[in-house]
# Entry
Amino acid sequence: MKYYELVYDHDGDDKKNNIYIMALFPNIQEDIDRYDIDIKNKFITNWDINNEFGYDPKDGYMYSDCLANVYSWMIVSEKSKNIFDKYIHSNNLQLLPIKIKNIVNEQKTNYFVLHVMDVIDALDLEHSDYFEIQLDEYGYEYEEEDEEKIRLIVAKYALKKDIIKGHHIFKVKKDNIRIFVSEEIKNEIEKNNLVGFCFWEVMTY
# Structure
């Protein structure tokens, strides 16, 4: 099975003359940090269903199934949620409800933040291109469970085939921002003609 990094389709948006919505105005509860989604990867119990992002229709007016936003969160439509719901088990994934609000007429649409908590030791360092950074040098307030106080900046990913087997949506340790998905999820998204997603194939060894 092939695996892919899941990203927002910036190129597809450009080809359509930037007609898709860009959620640039966050209104998120004070006790949720943007990095609770990007980096910390812990189960969130205090999410406020009134959290929202605003957009100006002058910047884009069409809804995509993967929504561009100022936090670079993976924000997905209800149609997309129906696919990702199939892959929820234990505490590997949350789909957190969020409103997308037109700041002109205040109309709101339901979306979901894809919060991936399945973080596995699957990065194949031998076949990846990367360099290390010390967290404390960048002012990062790491927690006790961070065994090594480093993160990797990865230019080219390679994954361990034996470790990722059976995982369909996950992140990797030491670089736990990027989201990876299996070919099975990619096929489901494409079969349902969902827009806004892009898949960058990652080699496995």
Summary: DSSP finds five helices and 15 strands in the chain. The chain has a mean pLDDT of 91. The first strand starts at residue 3 and ends at 8.
